[in-house]
Amino acid sequence: MKKYVGWVLLAICLVVTYQGWQTSSGVADTQDPARSVACDVGDDCVVSGTEPSAIKSDFMTRQYQFKTSQGPVTVTCKRQYVFFGNFSCTPKLGSLGVS
Question: How many Cα neighbours within 13 Å face the side chain of 96?
Fold first, then answer.
């Protein structure tokens, strides 16, 4: 019985590691949806340019900073269920803080 528990834990760790790697890489996949919600922070907002001015990703989130007519906007994209599911993006006024 203990032998199977070890294999199950190993499988769970491998799945979580792979999903975390998928989230931290492939930032281009969510760049367009992030750009489309960047101006949800206010009226009369226009995004400058097509590319984000900064990108930051880790195993749980992807963050993009866009220059807008309202100032810098940070859009955070997270998966629906920590490591699984579709990404949903939420904007917030302010810079990303990437040095």
Answer: 19
